[in-house]
Task: structure prediction
Amino acid sequence: MTELFAVEDLRVQFSTPRGQLNAVRGITLSVRAGECLGIVGESGSGKTVLWRSAMGLLRGRKVTRTGSARLEGRELLTLTPKEVRQYWGTHIAMVFQDPMTALNPVRRIGSQFVEALIKRKGMHKDAAMARTIELLRLVRMAEPELLVRKYPAQLSGGMRQRVMIAMAIACEPKVLLADEPTTALDVTVQAQVLELLSDLREKLGMAMVIVTHDLGIVAGHTDRIAVLYAGEVVEMASTLDLFANTKMPYTEALLKSIPRLDGTSTDMMEVIDGAPPDPMAETVGCFFAPRCKYATDKCRHEHPELVDDGTGHFYRCFYPLGKQS
Result:
């Protein structure tokens, strides 16, 4: 598979009254054509800022971006706001985590679709409505002819998320970013939405990125996973290898915090003690060291580089799991 979307040494800072906030600290990764990449990390790990910045959605006097973000070799960080709007939807699209804030609450579903298709694809109104019904049927919505006359508040959370997915794929983007796509949905609906995204990726030939805090969500729906902590990639590998051969203690801690089907009602889920480092502070050593049960003096005083074990499995740790001394 060829490299389709790539970020290289991407750094994002926000100017605040307290000083510079380091949200993304030199992340390098890529998404191949037709691939699904999972981006996993706690709240504040930089996963959402990473993609919104690369897509040109974060800009202004208080935002500093350095590094590179390329789509099919085209540099995105230097695009003007007008050029970003031309790329948005047609080349790269996003499914946001809260469809109620992404959809206009006072306009009917069909009206919102039709407007986007007329502006983006130059369609006639009748053709745009026909395409809207086709897209809603593609995301498995029942009675789409009736649905187009409804308002967002008349739909369930799962239905609204399906509508957002249909809107995201309307202009046939090459990369679809799903930012916490199952937030606030019950477990059954979560599974349906993830299965839908996987089916659409295969059917439409898109690349896809799923951004989430839950390793369990991406386990069966991604080809590779990148784990973020404090604005850095701390582990990256194929999904199968990451689960079978975990190297980073932070990844291990995330895995242990997932509820297990073979557990009992009295079992306590493991938690990660402490909190991530202050993004305003200059942290010395491994960022995860204060919370890591394997940490040594070296971890607290030296910052580990991201290294490859020789198989394409990257990790940022002096003492990877299985090799602690």
Q: What stands out?
A: The chain has a mean pLDDT of 89. The CA atoms of residues 112 and 277 lie 42 Å apart. The chain has two domains: 3-91+177-315, 99-172. Residues 99-172 form one domain.
